[in-house]
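Study this fold:
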Amino acid sequence: MVLTQLKTALSAHGLKEINPAGQPFDPHQHEGISHLPSPTVPAEHVVTVVRTGYSLNGRLLRPASVVVSSGPDKE
């Protein structure tokens, strides 16, 4: 309950979470820490969010740390 109130108060002042699961990789907002082959997720899309990022009034505070798909496994 307290976490919800804190997030509401901070979002009223312009803080936004960056949680890009399933979205295309954007090097301006995401920090790619690894590539992982995935048959279900298209290449260069986010597979897993390791750490959410934050922006304040359109300025990046912390990029989201993500694992990026490299497409289907090549045999």
